[in-house]
């Protein structure tokens, strides 16, 4: 009886089976990748898997992978003395001048895969997930005080990105695809029948996973071979958890 038989499927074997089965929760697969990264002392793999599990909140925006930076319309809810409007699409140019260069139709999706799945499941068919703009409360006050709104007694009630659930599905699919790519790359470096990769094999596979971040730097998974409402509404603002006026201008 082999060691693999006695102990059951190894993490790589479980990961290989799971990435090909869309019914297997993505969080469990990322935990397997985290274990593999731990055994191989692969900090990049561990960092990426943990970020996808826990989310990118509180981390620099430049560290967020490109597949988590989709475009989505900015929408506003508002009312006056005679009407109410919900889900009105507006341009970033309608926002206060101080947001120029910091807020546009590109939205950073920071949430972990479990929360993304929960947002998708809580969103009624045909509706969007609302992700609040950074500093939305302050922006609502500033906009309501602008002459073009104040003169018509218009009050801005909410400001958010309206993100289609299909966009969130695509993020989850991108993560699963990269896990699949990791398994394929790893298997290509391992002898047939081998169940446990060496640290060097893991590092080589990690180097070949294509993930770029917001500044177009492939820093998330690179390693040296020298190793030893309408729909669901997210309560936290998307992106790094800073006030909007503190965000780095582009």
Tell me what you see in this structure.
The protein has nine helices and five strands, in the order ααααββαβααβααβ. The chain is of the alpha+beta class and 250 residues long. The protein has two domains: 3-65 and 169-207, no CATH class; 69-165 and 231-240, no CATH class. A hairpin with a 4-residue loop joins β1 (74-79) and β2. The model is unreliable at 1-6, 216-230 and 235-250 (pLDDT under 50).
Write the layout of secondary structure elements.
Layout: H1 3-7, H2 11-19, H3 26-39, H4 43-54, E1 74-79, E2 84-90, H5 113-122, E3 129-132, H6 136-145, H7 147-150, E4 155-163, H8 165-189, H9 199-207, E5 233-234
Parallel strand pairs: 3-5
Antiparallel strand pairs: 1-2, 1-4, 3-4
Helix pairs in contact: 2-3, 2-8, 3-4, 3-8, 5-8, 8-9
Which properties best describe this structure?
250 residues, alpha+beta, disordered C terminus
Lateral arrangement of strands in the main beta sheet: 2-1-4-3-5
Helix content: 25-40%
Could you tell me how far the N terminus lies from the C terminus, measured between alpha carbons in angstroms?
60 Å
Name the overall outline.
Answer: elongated
- The fraction of residues assigned to DSSP E strands is 5-15%
Count of domains: 2
Order of helices and strands: HHHHEEHEHHEHHE
How large is the radius of gyration?
22 Å
Biggest pleated-sheet summary: 5 strands, mixed
Strand segment tally: 5
The class by helix and strand makeup works out as: alpha+beta
Tell me the number of helical segments per DSSP (H or I, 4 or more residues long).
Answer: 9
Low-pLDDT runs of 5+ residues are 1-6, 216-230, 235-250
Mean pLDDT: 85
């Amino acid at each position: 009886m082999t060691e693999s038989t006695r102990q059951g499927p190894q993490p790589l074997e479980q990961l290989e089976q799971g990435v090909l089965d869309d019914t297997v929760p993505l969080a469990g697969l990322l935990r397997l990748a985290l274990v593999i990264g731990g055994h191989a002392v692969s900090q990049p793999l561990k960092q990426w898997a943990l970020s996808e599990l826990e989310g990118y909140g509180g981390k620099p925006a430049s560290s967020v992978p490109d597949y988590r930076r989709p475009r989505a319309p900015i929408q506003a809810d508002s009312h006056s003395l005679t009407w109410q409007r919900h889900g009105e699409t507006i341009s970033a140019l309608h926002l206060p001048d101080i947001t120029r260069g910091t807020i546009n139709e590109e939205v950073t999706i920071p949430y972990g895969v479990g929360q993304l799945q929960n947002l998708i499941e809580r969103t009624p068919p045909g509706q969007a997930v609302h992700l609040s703009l950074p500093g939305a409360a302050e922006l609502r006050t500033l906009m309501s005080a602008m002459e073009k709104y104040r003169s018509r007694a218009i009050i801005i009630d909410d400001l958010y990105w309206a993100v289609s659930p299909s966009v969130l599905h695509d993020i989850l699919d991108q993560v699963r695809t990269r896990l699949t790519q990791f398994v394929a790359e790893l298997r290509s470096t391992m002898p047939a029948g081998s169940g446990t990769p060496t640290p060097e094999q893991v590092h080589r596979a990690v180097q070949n996973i294509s993930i770029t971040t917001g500044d177009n730097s492939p820093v998330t998974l690179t390693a040296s071979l020298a190793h030893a409402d309408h729909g669901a509404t997210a309560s936290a603002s998307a992106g790094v958890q800073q006030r909007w006026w503190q965000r780095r201008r582009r």
